[in-house]
Design brief:
Length: 454
Amino acid sequence: MSGGILFIFFLCLLAVVAFEFVNGFHDTANAVATVIYTKALKPQLAVPWSGFWNFMGVNVGGVAVAMGILKLIPLNELMALPVQIGACLVLGVLLTSIIWNLSTWYLGIPCSSSHTLIGAMIGGSLAFTHFYAGSVNWDKAKEIGLSLIMSPLFGFGAALLLMMFLRKFVKSEKLFHVPQGENDKPSFFVRLLLITTCTLVSFFHGSNDGQKGVGLLMLILIAFLPATFAIDHNIPQDKIISSLTKTQLVAQKSLIANPASHELSKLDTLIRKAQADIAGSTNDANGTFKFRKDIQAVTKNIKAIVTNPKMTIPDADKATLQASMSDLTKITDFSPLWVIITISLSLGFGTMIGWKRIVVTLGEKIGKTHLSYAQGATAEIIAASTIGLSTWFGLPVSTTHVLSSGIAGAMVATGGTKNLQSGTLKNIALAWILTLPVCIGLAYLLFMVFHIFV
């Protein structure tokens, strides 16, 4: 990379670290709000504790969410163009995300970093496709959008039902106590419950939100250094060839039982192409780009075959195809360990700074009464469960919206809708509605501005 491009590359790396740092004190405040306002932990202990478990969540959460985010943009088309074009897209996405996150944090509004990032990536991709080939992956966008919409609704409803269940069947005054004053603290077992739920939310926040930073950092690396990071060069070629050969043998065998199958004959052709390309060079950008597209085409075709109910394939052969698909997916869907550590450290340190604005909103301004121990635990149990399941399915969700809606549900279960502060809810709803269009528009505009100089 030349001097100017190298400068932009490091600027982008700094920006993604800044985004995840902001994400730490913007979103992770959700995890500590309940333990702080129920006096289960002091802020000096709660915030570093949450930061540590966010760090752990990023490290063991895998990369499914990160790769799901990357699939929103026309990455293969981006790789085929000069690095400067990728820089325009990356900078537009990063600056949009940071600007909107900082703005809502300053106003103390719990806004979703997930919505922010998704909107920025769609806006940047729309601007990119205005000039170049490819399109936004609208199927993936719809899938993610549905997840972002349904998760807070589920959080509200599930917290409402769980709180009603606890009120009806759990007869414990200590659990439903509302702390009064600095010296009114929960009993040992209630405190243990609240610390456990805070830990779970922090861990699953890291495993989900932290992956968004991993996805962004991988976008930068692939855009600027495609020959190095578009595929995982640490996977031995003989292992790749073995997976392709096993798949090809199953495809040829299955074609006898399904002679009219277009998918099986196409799979055989795609595998032959991948075998030819890997025999060539994958050390330069062009060779890497071709092989990446080969592998993605093969895995997509395998998925179409194993999910086709009309296909006559023995269970053993289907299991072989699924195992091969998993192995081949790891070639393109990966992240180096240092990327995960960088993001987890940024998220963890960010958690320890600037948390108070969002905590005040969640702890004091959603309901008209102080959080009881049961309400805090209920909201966090539902939030941790929702985020954990979403990470399992590789879908990004908003920790902010899930937890704030959980608190609202717990408040309604206790005192009805009159127990909610309408002003705060209106601000949260307004941010929820505005985030996507504002971020789409801002990222689109920033790409256009940067593109003028390119």
